[in-house]
Structures are given as C-alpha cells and as structure tokens.
Design brief:
single chain, mainly beta, 5-stranded mixed barrel, 4-stranded antiparallel β-sheet, 10 strands, binds zinc ion
C-alpha cells in the first residue's frame, strides 16, 4: 500500500485539496471578457476566446437557489439540500449544501468545505466538497 501526505481529491482537475485539509475548486477564466466557468472549459461561451486560463475559484459565495432532496441513492442520507452557489468570481457552482433544510435560505452566505467522500482502491480517504455556513 502506498502512503502519501497529499490528500486524494475525488476529481483532481476540479478540486485541489491541500495537506492541511483546505482546498479550492478549479475553474476557467477568460482573459478577454473576464467570464469564469466551472468546471473548466476550452472555449469561452461569451466571446469564443480559446485560450482560457485555469484559475483557483473563490471559496465564498451566496446561495442562488436550492431544492431539498427526499429520495436518493443509498449513498446519500436524506433529506439533504442541493443548490447553486454564486461564488465571488463570479461563477455559479452546483453542490450539496450542508445546512439544515429548515434553515436554508436563498441569498445566505456559504463557503466551500472539504469533506471525506469515500476511500480509493488503496484505502486512502478521497475528499470531495460541499458548501456550508460561513465560519
Ligand atoms: Zn470571453
């Protein structure tokens, strides 16, 4: 079994996880018009520029909209909140919202949280993300 201090991301091209457990999403920025995208793209949908930059996305944002999921696969305990978060880039990202369904509200401040997602074939913890209240 291989041991490493570098945390394993569930999608390394979309989520960077640092050794200290912090992390950020990875997106694209158009150098021509300033548009941001998540996940990364090769062509800007706004101005068709092809040389987009790969950039770390801001960790904080606000909840644009959400739904409360009551039925899901056995891997997900219900109910949970699924929503779109407008990050400060600006860019809109979908994700699970770690807020009580009774307390979730459009416009609330949220930030990226790095959470355990499962284990890989080598028994290492694989990390994913959710959005939670700003600490
Ligand atoms: Zn553009």
């Amino acid at each position: 079994m291989t041991t490493t201090k570098t945390p394993v991301s569930f999608r390394p091209r979309e989520l960077v996880v640092a050794e200290d457990g912090t992390g950020h999403l990875v997106g694209s920025r158009c150098p021509t018009c300033g548009a941001h995208y998540f996940p990364t793209r090769e062509v800007c949908a706004g101005c068709l520029t092809e040389d987009l930059e790969t950039v770390p996305l801001p960790r904080r944002g606000t909840l644009y909209t959400y739904t409360v999921v009551h039925q899901s696969t056995p891997a997900f305990e219900t109910p949970y909140v699924l929503g779109y978060v407008d990050l400060e880039a600006p860019v809109r990202v979908m994700g699970q919202i770690d807020v009580d369904p009774e307390e979730v509200a459009i416009g609330m401040a949220l930030e990226l949280k790095i959470v355990p997602w499962g284990t890989d074939d080598e028994g290492r913890t694989v990390w994913g993300y959710r959005f939670g209240g700003v600490s």
